[in-house]
Amino acid sequence: MVGGSIAGLALAGLLDPERFAVTIHEERPERAEAGSSLALWPDARRVLDDLGVGDRAGRLVHEVGTGSLRDATGRPLVSPPADASMQMILRPALIELLEQAVPDTVRRVHERVDRPERLPADLVVGADGVRSVVRRSAFGEHTVPRLTPWLALRGLLPGTPPENGEYWGRGDLAGVVEAPGGTYWFTTHVSHLGALPAEAGGDPWRRSLVVDVGEALAEARRVFEGTADRAPVVLDVLGRADAETTLAQRIYEAPPMRRLVHGRAVLVGDAAHAMTPNLGRGACEALVGARILASELNTRDLGSALTRYEARRLLPGAVLRRTSHALMQVALATRLQPARDRALRGVGTALARAPRLT
């Protein structure tokens, strides 16, 4: 297993220890302490039940009401039903739960893997994210991750937000959600920070890894404060955020994949279908993919298991990746932003007038 985050830990916890000797290679285990608040969909909760940590997860999950989709000023565009809710969990808490489910028989190696094809194993699992070295090794240089124009910031601040919501502006978006321990906030805007042009040289798989958080925060404040009538809650979280409590990352997407299996290599999680965060499905798809791969490996011979896994996961992952990308383009529209807002406001009005089924 190359990668010891959500997908890798879940798979290690679900594989039959009587059948598999598992080694997890993780370069930076300290990354488990960083992260954000993650949505846990029902299918992801079922994976935690399968891992035997469902009850503990129930004590760490925070159920919150879903917020309205609003324009940049805070005016509602589309509002969910009053009783709609979602479950959130902090990423470090989820990682800790998954660690508890990993058997003691799993071997840990804290080092970077540059040549996964040399690992002495019958199966090499790429659970190493959007810049997967396993994907590169097995499928070739053409599977380099795609750098999007967007920079994402997120963090956790004390206090409860006045209400949950997402705010779509002209070429930017922001959101605030009640989370365990406070307010989870996020923003996305077009940025050149950390985005080296191709002519700058260097390895495209390692390019644009570091974004200065202080610079990113300063740029986000200029973007969001530079437009009149911004929603006060967005300006408030950006004003209170600091570099110590904020993550700033370029958004990458996995390339379109026609296969998830090549030889003795298989991809799972973001290595297979990393997507923009708009659908809130990244962590869930990592857990679901790990469960499907484990269920096939535990009950079939290796060749049949990998064939079945690919058949079950290739299309759903591709659909979600394309859907989330399309949603990001709509959310960050510039020239079409007024028409987008009018259309969404019409949808919201129609939903509000529609009769509720009981």
TrEMBL record:
User: What SUPFAM superfamilies does the entry give?
Assistant: FAD/NAD(P)-binding domain (SSF51905)
- Signal peptide positions on this chain: none
Q: What is this protein called?
A: FAD-dependent oxidoreductase
State the organism of origin: Mobilicoccus caccae
